[in-house]
Design a protein that fits this description.
The structure holds two protein chains of two kinds. Chain A is built from eleven helices and eleven strands. Chain A is α+β, with helices and mostly antiparallel strands. Helix content of chain B is about 45%, strand content about 15%. Classes of the chains: A alpha+beta, B alpha+beta.
C-alpha cells in the first residue's frame, strides 16, 4: 500500500506548474471572453517541449509510456490556472490508438505533438442502457453513436454521424473514437474504434465558443467520412470515455485548489467589524466545506488513476465517482469564492467569474457530472446484486 | 502508487489469515440464529476472544513488544482489521482501551502503571473506558468540572460527573480527566487519573438514546478515593495527556472509517433490491452522490495510511472523513426510508437502528461544528474567533458565566 507520488511524479507536477506559470492564462481567459480569442496563448509548443502529447503512448512508439495518474497530474496543473490547452481530447484519443496495432502508424507524430488528435466522445452502455451514445446539441437526451459500413482493421470504411461539444476538436488533425460498424449479421452492430483525418471530405468541424472561452469545443459532423478501422479492444473504447472523465475530474480538482487558495487569502486579510472575516464561523465553515469536497476529490483521483491499470473492472466506477465529486466540488468552490469576496467576486475584473464559468460549462460536458453520478449508482447496484 | 501488499505485508496477511482460519470457530457468534442473547454472556465471550486475538498477535499490533504488542506499524494493524472483517468474526471488545487509552499510558504512564495495567487491558481481562466528556464539557473539553482534591496524605478525592461513556457498565478502569487547580487558566489546571470503576462512590447509569438502547453511560463520582499513584502524566499536565488520547482517536477514525459499516456497497444493495427504485433517476442520483463520497473516504483512509507509514501524524483533517461518513449515512438512511417506506422503520430493521443512531453520532468525538472550526483554523490557517476564556483562571470564568446566566 503506497499512495504517495513517486519522485518522477512530483517532478512532472512541478515542471508543469513551472511551465504554465510563464503564461498569463487568467488574463487571457478574460480577454477571450470579450471577443479577443487570439488573446489565448498557444500552449501546444510548451506541451510538446514537456512531452505531454506522448504521455499515454508507449515508448516504442515515441511516447513516455506513462499512465492515467501521470496525465491527471498534468491536467490538474492546467486546471489550477484555467489553461486553455488541447490535451484532454488528445490524451483520450491516443489512449485508444495505443491499443490498436492498425493505428500504430499515426502514433509517432501524435507522440511528438507534430500532429494533434481529438477524442470523439461516445458513452459506453451502462446497467440500464444497452446503446453507445453521444451528447446532443440541445437537451440531455442521448443520441445514437456514429455508424458505418463493414471493414477489417486497417481498412477504410465510410462513417456518418453527429457529435456535439467535442473537446479540443478545432484544429485537430485526426479524430479518434467509436462508431457502430456493420457486421456480417447486420448493420450498425459492432462498436469499433475509428480514426478519421479532419482534412478528409465529409468531415466538418464547427468550432463553438460556449460560456468559457478557455474550453475549445466543436460540433463534429461526419457525412460518409473515410475512417480507418482500428483493432483496439472494446474494453479500451469504454476505458477512453472513463479516462476522459478522470482527466476532467483532475482538471476540476486543480481549479478547486486555486479557488480555495484565493478565497482563503481574502478571508484572512479582509476585516469587518474589527476582525478578519475568516474568523467568522459562517465563512470558516463554508471554506471547510470546499476543503472537504476537494479532499474527497483528491482521494478519488488516486482511485481512478490506480484502477485504469491496477483494477480495470473498477475503472468505470472510480472515474465516474471522481468526476461526480470533482464536478460538485468545483461548483461549490466557485460559488464560495464569489460569496466570500462579496459583491466584488461577481464582477468582471475578478477571477472568480472565470472559475465559475469553467465550473458551469465543464459540469455539462461529456455526459455531464450528472451522468457520471448516475453511473456510480449503476455500477454499484450491478455489483451489489451480482454478489 | 500501489494498492497491493509488499511481499512482507503479504506474508503478514497470510499469517493472520491462517491463524483466523484455525481459530474462527472459537469466536463468539453475535449474529444469526445461533447468536448469543444474554448481555453478560456476550461480554464474557468477547473478552475471552480478545484474549485469544492478543495471544495470536492480532490485538495491540502497534503496541511495543515489551508491553505484549507486536511492535508493528499501522499497515499491519489495518491488515489485521481487514482479515478479521473478512473472516466475519468479531474484533476486540476493548477498542477504546487498546486503540487509545493504552497508547496514552504507554506515552505518559509510569513504569509501574505500564506493567500493572497494559497486559490485562490487551488481553481483555480488564476492560477500560474513557472518562473525558461531561454534561458541560464536550467540544470544549478543557472546561471539565470534575474536581480532584489532594488530601494531606497525597491521595485524592474525586467528585463530579462524566457522560457518553462507552463500556462503563462492565469496565474495570477508566482514564479520567479532572480539574485539580481551578485558580489557573482552564487548560493548565487539569490532571489525568486512572480510576477503578468498582471504587466506592462510583455509580454507572445507562443513557438511553433515540433507538431506545443504552449504548453509553453516565458515570457519577461521589467522594471517590484515589491513590497518589493514580495520576498519569503528572499533576497539571492533563491537557497534554488528553491530546495524546485524542490524537490516537483520530488515527482510529482515519483508519477505521469503514468499520462503522456505512459503506457504498451496503447502501447500493438496499436500493438495488427494489426494481422500481433501481431505475428511478432521482434515486440513482442521490445514491450516486452518497456513494461517490463514501468511496472517496476509503481512499482518504489509504492516504492516511501512506502518511502514517512515512512516520507522519494524522492531523485534524481526518475529521473531514468523519463528517463525510456521518452525513453520507444520514442521507442514505433518508433515501432508503423513502424507497422502502415505513417498513424501513420496523422494530428489527437495520435501517431503523442506523437512522436513530446517526443524529447522535454527528456530535460524537466533537460536534461537526467544532470539527469545522478546528479544521478551518489548523488546516486552512483561518484566524480563530475572539475567545473570552484565554488567560482567565477557571474559577473566575465559571463565576462570570454564572453571573451572565
Amino acid at each position: 500500500m503506497n499512495l504517495a507520488l513517486s519522485d518522477e511524479q512530483v517532478l512532472l507536477r512541478e515542471a508543469a506548474r513551472g511551465a504554465l506559470s510563464r503564461f498569463k492564462t487568467l488574463e487571457a481567459a478574460r480577454e477571450a471572453l470579450d471577443g479577443h480569442e487570439d488573446a489565448l496563448p498557444d500552449l501546444w509548443p510548451m506541451a510538446r517541449e514537456a512531452g505531454w502529447p506522448g504521455l499515454l503512448i508507449d515508448e516504442e512508439h515515441g511516447g513516455a509510456g506513462l499512465d492515467a495518474f501521470d496525465a491527471m497530474l498534468v491536467l490538474g496543473e492546467c486546471g489550477r490556472v484555467l489553461a486553455s490547452i488541447k490535451l484532454l481530447g488528445h490524451l483520450a484519443a491516443t489512449a485508444i490508438l495505443n491499443e490498436a496495432p492498425a493505428g500504430a502508424s499515426l502514433l509517432a507524430d501524435l507522440a511528438s505533438g507534430e500532429q494533434r488528435a481529438a477524442y470523439l466522445p461516445v458513452k459506453p452502455p451502462d446497467d440500464l442502457a444497452q446503446e453507445w451514445t453521444v451528447d446532443a446539441r440541445v437537451g440531455s437526451k442521448r443520441e445514437p453513436a456514429p455508424s458505418g459500413g463493414r471493414g477489417a482493421p486497417g481498412e477504410q470504411v465510410r462513417v456518418s454521424g453527429e457529435l456535439a461539444f467535442v473537446p479540443d476538436a478545432p484544429g485537430a488533425d485526426v479524430l479518434v473514437g467509436v462508431a457502430m460498424l456493420d457486421t456480417p449479421q447486420g448493420t450498425g452492430g459492432e462498436p469499433t474504434g475509428v480514426a478519421i483525418e479532419t482534412s478528409a471530405d465529409g468531415v466538418e468541424v464547427e468550432p463553438i465558443m460556449r460560456y468559457d472561452a478557455t474550453r475549445s469545443l466543436a460540433h463534429v459532423s461526419l457525412k460518409e467520412a473515410p475512417a480507418t478501422v482500428l483493432d483496439a479492444p472494446q474494453s479500451s473504447l469504454a476505458a477512453a470515455w472513463h479516462l476522459a472523465q478522470a482527466l476532467l475530474a483532475a482538471e476540476s480538482v486543480g481549479s478547486v485548489e486555486t479557488a480555495l487558495d484565493v478565497s482563503l487569502g481574502y478571508a484572512k486579510e479582509r476585516h469587518t467589524f474589527g476582525r478578519p472575516i475568516g474568523s467568522y464561523q459562517a465563512i470558516k465553515h463554508s471554506l471547510t466545506e470546499v476543503l472537504r469536497q476537494l479532499d474527497n476529490g483528491r482521494s478519488l483521483l488516486y482511485y481512478a488513476g490506480w484502477s485504469r491499470r491496477g483494477g480495470p473492472d473498477e475503472f468505470a466506477l472510480a472515474a465516474s465517482a471522481a468526476r461526480s465529486v470533482a464536478g460538485r466540488a468545483l461548483d461549490q468552490a466557485a460559488r464560495t469564492m464569489i460569496s466570500v469576496h462579496g459583491g466584488i467576486g461577481a464582477t468582471w475584473e475578478h477571477d472568480a467569474p472565470l472559475y465559475f464559468r469553467r465550473a458551469q460549462l465543464t459540469r455539462r460536458l461529456l455526459g455531464g457530472t450528472h451522468g457520471a453520478t448516475d453511473r456510480v449508482a449503476g455500477e454499484l447496484m450491478t455489483a451489489a446484486t451480482a454478489a | 502508487m500501489d494498492l497491493d501488499d509488499t511481499p512482507q505485508q503479504a506474508a503478514h496477511r497470510a499469517q493472520v489469515r491462517s491463524w483466523l482460519e484455525e481459530h474462527a470457530s472459537e469466536a463468539p457468534v453475535l449474529n444469526g440464529p445461533d447468536a448469543l442473547q444474554d448481555e453478560q454472556e456476550i461480554i464474557a465471550a468477547r473478552r475471552a476472544w480478545q484474549g485469544k486475538l492478543a495471544e495470536g498477535g492480532l490485538a495491540g499490533v502497534t503496541w511495543p513488544k515489551e508491553f505484549g504488542g507486536q511492535g508493528q506499524g499501522p499497515i499491519e494493524q489495518v491488515i489485521c482489521s481487514q482479515e478479521i472483517a473478512r473472516a466475519k468474526v468479531p474484533g476486540i471488545l476493548d477498542a477504546i482501551g487498546v486503540g487509545m487509552l493504552g497508547p496514552t499510558i504507554i506515552a505518559h504512564g509510569t513504569d509501574e502503571q505500564k506493567s500493572r495495567y497494559l497486559g490485562p487491558m490487551l488481553h481483555g481481562d480488564e476492560v477500560w473506558c474513557q472518562l473525558f466528556s461531561e454534561p458541560a464539557a464536550g467540544s470544549d473539553l478543557a472546561a471539565v468540572q470534575s474536581r480532584a482534591r489532594r488530601a494531606d496524605d497525597g491521595s485524592w478525592r474525586l467528585n463530579g460527573q462524566k457522560v457518553w461513556t462507552t463500556n462503563a457498565q462492565f469496565a474495570s478502569y477508566g482514564l479520567l480527566l479532572a480539574r485539580t487547580d481551578p485558580d489557573v487558566p482552564k487548560h493548565k489546571g487539569l490532571t489525568m487519573f486512572i480510576v477503578p470503576m468498582d471504587a466506592p462512590g462510583v455509580t454507572v447509569r445507562g443513557l438511553r438514546q433515540i433507538s431506545g438502547e443504552a449504548e453509553f453511560n453516565e458515570v457519577f463520582f461521589d467522594d471517590v478515593a484515589l491513590d497518589a499513584d493514580a495520576v498519569v502524566g503528572g499533576e497539571g499536565n492533563g491537557w497534554a495527556t488528553a491530546l495524546t488520547t485524542l490524537m490516537f482517536e483520530r488515527v482510529t477514525i482515519g483508519l477505521g472509517s469503514e468499520g462503522l459499516g456505512y459503506n457504498s456497497n451496503r447502501f447500493a444493495h438496499a436500493i438495488a433490491t427494489n426494481e422500481d427504485a433501481r431505475r428511478d433517476p432521482e434515486v440513482r442520483h442521490v445514491l450516486g452522490e452518497i456513494a461517490s463520497e463514501l468511496l472517496a473516504v476509503r481512499f482518504t483512509g489509504y492516504r492516511t495510511l501512506t502518511a502514517l507509514q512515512k512516520g507522519q501524524v494524522p492531523g485534524p483533517e481526518a475529521g473531514l472523513a468523519k463528517i463525510t461518513i456521518v452525513n453520507g449515512a444520514i442521507r442514505a438512511g433518508e433515501l432508503i426510508a423513502d424507497v422502502q417506506g415505513p417498513d424501513a422503520l420496523g422494530k428489527d430493521s437495520e435501517w431503523a437502528y442506523m437512522i436513530s443512531f446517526l443524529p447522535g453520532l454527528k456530535s460524537a468525538g466533537g460536534t461537526e461544528e467544532i470539527l469545522r472550526n478546528t479544521i478551518g483554523e489548523r488546516v486552512l490557517g483561518l484566524p480563530p474567533a475572539p475567545r473570552l476564556d484565554k488567560g482567565i483562571p477557571f474559577s473566575e470564568l465559571r463565576s462570570k458565566e454564572a453571573a451572565a446566566a
